[in-house]
């Protein structure tokens, strides 16, 4: 059941429109602001993109029916290009009513309410460390269980539990039965349940036959974003089983207990949920690169490119959850969601530290019907540099393993190992490097390359709750900007503890966090300066020249 | 294959959590990691050089995942294996039933594969004899019946681990004259692309 790299699903549309054509962005202007067409923004690839081209967040979240992809070109044509000029932006900001500031107050109240009282146990203590003996599950009748900020449940259409983030699935079988009853009740009326909002909770349902995914959250995320996270969980399950196998199983036996097949994968799903609460990659639908001098990155990429084999589709070098280099087969694009799943797989298991792993893996956004085989290994002990070679041929282990050896040999010959080690020592940069006093943090995403950059989160966001609060604010701005009924291009948000700005254009998305003492005018000036800085540093922060075999 | 020459393919099979990865860790690195249980994803490959008399033998050890999810494709890991170490947990009789399943699988699909039964976690029995869930004599009888060797090991203390892999290497050396011939035939028939691949790897 090897994945067929040539057979693409209809929603992936012909290759031409997956990534911007090469000629499109030969003219890279010095200043980032005037006429930023997609493909010329800072961080845009110079020789085409690496990823399946997703123009917007909606592309990522929409069901795989191709509706969004088909719709977006028209939308783009309709939008005036001069929108992104700086003057226009400042005007937009000053015209922006104080309505949002008013809302911010409500939001803050909501947040305070959320913070009060309930001190959750740290996720580690609740974590089941084993599927076998010694598994400590939470008692689902206790208050501690109820007070978790986000529960996630997966069940089969027969109402059988498949996964629960907290507590054992058995203990929750009646709860899951009720969930399935709710879903079926509305479906009997030819209707579908999407969410329930009550008592500060959002209960969000995602239906992906033969599975039902439910989140019970009291975070401030929008329903859309919670559904997006549930989809990630669904894709995570597909990546282990494939869509074909999943459906086949339930066609054979409707009340199959899927936990048998998923045994041992709870840790991967748990890790994915934790990662989504901390890492903006998932919110942005984009990938972050390890900051690295362009010459070093190019040397690494060429070494990867030369260590090829017939069956290889993707060669990926990563560190932490950051991308170092990605080389792909010509005309094959990876989807950011698939890459996130790979990142999660690697970060959730220490078992790859030993030897060389060879594992079947489905990349559901690429092709949900078959398995690739991935060769996963760390380049050196004690060094956080993981090489992932994705092959179509499950018999090809030794050939692929030899690619790794050749890659390491080339790396040695080019003498870039030292520079690579150095870069790994400082995997994040400080926002102070930008040189804007009021600037605390930012997220900048180049839409055409599917890459984003973001400095380390520093003081005052030191504690975990503070970091999550900052991500929560970004999530809020993101959901306002991408609200399907009333999307916003510019948002200036004034809060008691920080001011934030969001700016979404055809070409990029920018979210900036300032100290609360600054002014709106100051913030807009800073954006200009920040964009110039990103342009200046782009060859270090992004992969501008992606390679193919 | 270029780069790394492996003489004998050895595969570890058995129910999840019986300690296959710990056994490999002990054999290859002489370590034991206490930490939380981490299940293997897919399979992990480790090459281990052994000395038998004045010969060296490189064992290519495949540590497979015990999870049922990977069962359907476990064949790619044990195909062509010279030796299979079928593991069970000495304190868990269910895991021995699972070991029998793997033995049947091997007998049906891999006739040329020698079987080594390995009862793991023997240190737990040192602490408390009543913990034993699998009777030694029962397994001994079963091992005789299927012509397998039997070891009871502890990856924590290292007991019998080296002996097990040493025996695997010795048996390989002692039986290899016969097996090389069968392998050559096997490779030519089954790997249709292999000459093509080798030629492009060597240039």
TrEMBL record, chain A:
This is Vacuolar fusion protein MON1 homolog. Residues 310-408 form the FUZ/MON1/HPS1 second Longin domain. Pfam families: Fuz_longin_1, Fuz_longin_2, Fuz_longin_3. GO terms for cellular component: Mon1-Ccz1 complex. InterPro entries: FUZ/MON1/HPS1_longin_1, FUZ/MON1/HPS1_longin_2, FUZ/MON1/HPS1_longin_3, Mon1. PANTHER family: SAND PROTEIN-RELATED, VACUOLAR FUSION PROTEIN MON1 HOMOLOG A. One of its GO terms (biological process) is protein targeting to vacuole. Residues 150-272 form the FUZ/MON1/HPS1 first Longin domain. Belongs to the MON1/SAND family. Residues 1-90, 114-137 are annotated as: Disordered.
UniProtKB/TrEMBL annotation, chain B:
It comes from the Eukaryota. GO terms for biological process: autophagy; protein transport. Its EC number is 3.6.5.2. GO terms for molecular function: G protein activity; GTP binding; metal ion binding. The keyword Protein transport applies. InterPro entries: P-loop_NTPase, Rab24, Small_GTP-bd, Small_GTPase. It catalyses: GTP + H2O = GDP + phosphate + H(+). It is an enzyme of class 3 (hydrolase). PROSITE patterns: RAB (PS51419), RAS (PS51421). One of its GO terms (cellular component) is perinuclear region of cytoplasm. Its cofactor is Mg(2+). The keyword Transmembrane helix does not apply. Keywords: Autophagy, Cytoplasm, Cytoplasmic vesicle, Cytoskeleton, GTP-binding, Hydrolase, Lipoprotein, Magnesium, Membrane, Metal-binding, Nucleotide-binding, Phosphoprotein, Prenylation, Protein transport, Transport. It is found in: Cytoplasm, Cytoskeleton, Spindle; Cytoplasm, Cytosol; Cytoplasm, Perinuclear region; Cytoplasmic vesicle, Autophagosome membrane. It holds the Pfam family Ras. It is a lipid-anchor. The small GTPases Rab are key regulators of intracellular membrane trafficking, from the formation of transport vesicles to their fusion with membranes. Rabs cycle between an inactive GDP-bound form and an active GTP-bound form that is able to recruit to membranes different sets of downstream effectors directly responsible for vesicle formation, movement, tethering and fusion. RAB24 is an atypical RAB protein that presents low GTPase activity and thereby exists predominantly in the GTP-bound active state. RAB24 is required for the clearance of late autophagic vacuoles under basal conditions. Belongs to the small GTPase superfamily. Rab family. Interacts with ZFYVE20. Does not interact with the GDP dissociation inhibitors ARHGDIA and ARHGDIB. This is Ras-related protein Rab-24. It comes from Cardinalis cardinalis.
